[in-house]
Amino acid sequence: MSWFNRFSNLFRREIVDKELDEELKFHLDARTRDNLNAGMNAEAAQHDARRRFGNPTLAKERAHETNIVMWIETTGRDLRYALRSLRKSPGFTMVAMLTLALGFGANIAVFTVVNGVLFRPLPFPEPERLMMISYQSKEGGPGLFDRDYLEYQRHVQAFEQIATFHEDSATLTGAGEAVRLPTADVTSSFFPVLEVNPAMGRAFLPAEEKQGSNRVVLLSDKIWRNRFGADANILGKAITLDGVTYSVVGVMPADFAFPHEAALWLPLEVGGDPGNFTTREVVGRLKPQPSQQQALAELEALAKHLPPLPVANREDMVAEVLPMKDLVVGKIRKSLLIFMGAVAFVLLIACANVANLLLMRGTSRQREIAVRNALGASRGRVIRQLLTESTLLSFGGVLAGVLLALLGVPALLALAPAAGVPRIDEIHIDGLVLGFALLLGVFTGILFGLAPALQATGNRVRTFLAVSGPTLTARRAKLRSILVVFEIALALVLLTGAGLMLKSFMRMRAVDPGFRTENILTMTVDLPDASYPTAKAIQAFDSSILTKLSNLPGVAAAGAVNFMPLQPVLIRGDFNLDGGRKWPRDYNVAKLDVSPDYFRVMGIRFLKGSRFTDQDNSSAPGVVIISQSVARTLWPGEDPIGKRITTEDDPKSTDWLTIVGIVDDVRQRLTGQPLPAVYQPYQQVTRPFFLSHMSFVVRTAEKPRSVAAGLREVLHEVDRNQPVSITTLTDLADASTAQTWFQARLISTFSILALFLAAIGIYGVLAYAVTERTREIGIRMALGAKKSHITRMLLKRTLVLVLAGVALGGCGALVLTRVLGKFLFEVKPNDPATFLSVAVILAATGILAGLLPAQRASRVDPVVALRSE
Questions:
Q1: Could you give the 3-state DSSP secondary structure of residue 340?
Q2: Taking residues 521-537, what's their average pLDDT?
Q3: DSSP code of 527?
Q4: Which residues contact residue 652 at a Cβ distance below 8 angstroms, ignoring those fewer than 6 apart?
Q5: What is the distance between the alpha carbons of residues 130 and 132, in angstroms, rounded to a whole number?
Q6: Which of 2, 286, 445, 646 could form a disulfide with 391 if both were Cys (CB 3.0 to 4.6 A apart)?
Q7: Handedness of CA 16, 19, 25, 31 (dihedral sign)
Q8: What's the CA gap between 763 and 750, in Å, rounded?
Q9: What is the pLDDT of residues 54-107, one digit of tens each?
Q10: Is the torsion defined by CA of 336, 342, 343, 345 positive or negative?
Q11: In terms of domains, do 558 and 705 share one?
Q12: Rounded to 10 degrees, what is the CA torsion of 245, 247, 248, 250?
């Protein structure tokens, strides 16, 4: 039959039916004539013909099914029938759709984030050809030493071009209030590699990478609009960054902020001198033919011929060529995939709940299905009808889930820590997310509908009539119980993960950082070299700030340190010991410059010796205070007070620093080990680099933020061109644990949802079991069973289900929670206390969920129960 005829049949159904009736009548008449010729009488000949031919309605149905258009029409009838069937059971339909909506909503919301961060292509032409190039030690970050970058640039064959860059910051003045902005120092090949051109003006020229010619800048679209009023004549105009004048040569497109949300781009000069061991990130664009593996082989081959480095052992270094998206996504990939797994568990529990609802509903539809079988409907035809109903339910849940996701995605991002989720502007529900939702709807509709459909159609008419009701009930009850055990197991896995994350967070917050965080306000200042070129100029600025801060109302004490705890910026290294003693291998310390009152303001415990005073200035002998771990490591069993050290390689007599005190160790990160440190009075530091970044800390008698305005005024009094960055130490501590808290809250939310659904599942199964066993319970009570016996009988069944689920879930949790290992702090993935606590919580929840049906069963009136049968 031609496609034209097949589709034309859709509009001439009555004619097709008439033709089929005529054809069927022809075959019946032919068989009847054969029987008459064989000697049968007329009645016997017709009966035998009908018996041999079979059900004519079923034959017509099969004939229709061979036509694809008729199949579409049949599906339409199935959908209409399913809608009528679901409308007749509004309670069942509403509960099932709401259950699915919770599971779908969570999955769609998390997938929306995953899609925006992981799956959506980077906003560059042919982003799959952009690769990050790295040759570093396993402990080091990605990138190349400047010397290696220049060497690789000369010999590279697999890439069209490569570029190097690094993030920085600069203070913009003269365009409103001074502000500290994220910047990126990039080589002139950076924008050609990305194939991104400025929206206005031009990119950097190779000649502008050289010192003296590099006073040009590119603006982001946001800065151009917010700070310069979208000035169409901005090109060629001068702006001031860190006290230095730059000429604007271009404005980047509105959607470009790479790398690291940069607001400004400056030319970068890469030095190849032997003393330069700077490491920077490197990006390259592959040529059309070479693959990622070929580029890696080329890098590995070149690495064998690179000159040795005194700062690193080449044998410990690893060559890598990775997609650039890995740099953009960072470490959040694993977190997002774990969240996807967690919400998948929630959806599976929701599906198990709806499958149980369908099994219960199937019991009341046994007669309907038996009648359809008796009329000739095949088992496959009935299964298709039942799957149509379950898929329709699933699509209803998807629609509600999308609506929940529209609200859930902003809430999810609001829970995330600041800058914790990359590419946040690209996270929204789009066609791919909707396609995912539809596919999920089809898959889950079949998933939770198939078992009930097979169960409902597994017994033909004779079986339905022959097998006793209790036998059929027992079979369905067994499948429902298996689904509940499955739900409990999944819920336990999720709860265990949440318990581990919460315990890890609590351990993290319970860590003693070595200082006090309450009632402390911090103000960080980055002084530009152009305005403060010498250590004396910086020290004068710091002294003026400290004096004014100390006199502010509400300030109990004020101090300063170049690198605050809980901040990522830090200088670490070694120093020389008096008497020619050798420095321990792979040991380094934090080099901190502080004011005399810093330890008192921060509450850092002083253990021994004397404190710094205002007299420890440039005219006094050099002194230092060391932390306890430095004393134990370098002078074990000795008293280090009075010992001398120096930061100079060829020290003069005035370069030696005498140890005058020992303080407790401080954690730079709450999750890290206490950091060995050497403290020097800021007035005795001679290198401007150590002083240009300074944090001022004040301890207040009242709420810290009450004096924030005073700190801002003090800074503006001393230098109005310095941007203000003020926060509390408590906020810094919270920020350092924000990612863990976000992960713990998210998994806990999914776990509570899973626990709620599992409890509903237990309640539903037991409540329906009470309904099915009403006659049995009535007989038991009529024979003398007490209410407490009935309650215990049903609670015993609950306990069996819960214990089976806990045992199965415990095994699963032992395996699956290992993926959380890298996210945990001082907690093992198989922590016995957490496993036991979660099991107890889940068991208690299950027993409570089963208690109400059990109590209802104990109140059954035997007379009413027996009469109802």
A1: helix
A2: 92
A3: -
A4: none
A5: 7
A6: 445
A7: negative
A8: 20
A9: 556 555 555 555 554 555 666 677 778 778 877 887 877 888 888 888 889 989
A10: positive
A11: yes
A12: -140
Are 752 and 545 within 8 A, CB to CB? no
Q: 94 lies in a domain?
A: no
Q: How far apart are CA 603 and CA 517, in angstroms?
A: 9
293 Cβ neighbours under 8 A, 6+ residues apart: none
Which amino acid is located at 629 in the chain? S
Element (H, E) at 329: helix 325-329
Please name every residue paired with 323 in a beta bridge, in sequence order, or none if there are none. 131
Characterize the bridge pairing of strands 677-681 and 589-594.
parallel
Tell me which DSSP letter residue 775 carries: H
Residues 178 and 313 both lie in one domain: yes
Please check whether residue 646 is in contact with residue 575, taking contact to mean a CB–CB distance below 8 angstroms: yes
Q: How confident is the model at residue 461 (pLDDT cuts 50, 70, 90)?
A: very low
The two tokens of residue 125 are 């032409």
Number of H helices, E strands in the chain: 27, 23
Domain, as residue range, for 304: 127-323
Which is nearest to 148 in space by CA: 306, 259, 270?
A: 306
Q: How many Cα atoms occupy the beta-carbon half-sphere of 343 within 13 Å?
A: 25
Which tokens hold the place of 817? 């929670």
Classified as helix, coil or strand, 40 is coil
Determine the 3-state secondary structure of 483 from DSSP: helix
Taking the CB of residue 764, how many other CB atoms lie within 10 A of it?
20
Q: Do both 588 and 493 map to the same domain?
A: no
The answer to whether residues 56 and 77 touch, using CB atoms and an 8 Å cutoff, is: no
Nearest to 318 by CA among 130, 131, 142: 142
For every residue of 528-575, DSSP letters joined together read -TTT--SHHHHHHHHHHHHHHHHTSTTEEEEEEESS-TTSS---EE--
pTM as predicted: 0.78
Q: Which residue has the tokens 């032919």?
A: 30
CA torsion 216-222-228-232 (nearest 10°) is 80
First vs last C-alpha separation in the chain: 56
Q: What are phi and psi of 520, to 5 degrees?
A: -125, 130
Of 733, 614, 611, 612, the closest CA to residue 666 belongs to: 733
| In the predicted structure, residue 5 carries a pLDDT above the cut 50 | no
Structural domain count of the chain = 4
Query: Are 184 and 269 found together in one domain?
Result: yes
Residue pair 681/616 in contact by the 8 Å Cβ criterion: yes
Q: Which residues of 91-126 are buried (b: 16+ CB within 10 A; e: fewer)?
A: ebbebbbebbbbbbbbbbbbbbbbbbbbebebbbee
DSSP character string of 380-429: HHHHHHHHHHHHHHHHHHHHHHHHHHHHHHHHHHHHSPTT-STTGGG-S-
User: Are 482 and 538 found together in one domain?
Assistant: no
160: buried, middle or exposed (CB in 10 Å: 19+, 13-18, 0-12)?
middle
Among 290, 323, 356, give the residue marking a domain's end: 323
Phi-psi sector, 556: left (phi>0), alpha (psi -120 to 50), beta? alpha
Q: How far apart are CA 179 and CA 199, in angstroms?
A: 24
Sign of CA dihedral 491, 497, 503, 509: negative
Residues 402 and 450 in one domain: yes
Q: Does residue 426 fall inside a structural domain?
A: yes
For every residue of 704-761, DSSP letters joined together read: GGGGHHHHHHHHHHH-TTSPP-EEEHHHHHHHHTHHHHHHHHHHHHHHHHHHHHHHHH
Asked whether the beta carbons of 236 and 247 are under 8 A apart, the reply is yes
Amino acid, res. 331: K
* Cα atoms in the Cβ-side hemisphere of radius 13 Å centred on 813: 29
What is the pLDDT at residue 390? 82
Residue type, 153: Q
Q: Each residue of 14-48: pLDDT tens digit?
A: 665 665 566 666 666 677 777 777 777 777 767 76
In a domain, 91, yes or no: no
Task: Classify residue 132: in a domain, yes or no.
Answer: yes
